[in-house]
Design brief:
By secondary structure, the protein is mostly helical. The protein contains 3 helices and no strands.
Length: 60
Amino acid sequence: MSKREVKLYLTDIDDAVSTIQSYTKDMTYEQLLADRKTREAIILNFVVIGEATKNMVCSS
């Protein structure tokens, strides 16, 4: 795997983490529990993180 590919996976992970942080900024735990759309969007970003991580490890 080239360094560029790893860098792209790391960028995907960084973007997903930043997105999760932006979705949950200023939210309480109770507000998050009550907001199904936000929870599902967060889960999607965790899937992105997992896939990027898997691809980096499996391709090494």
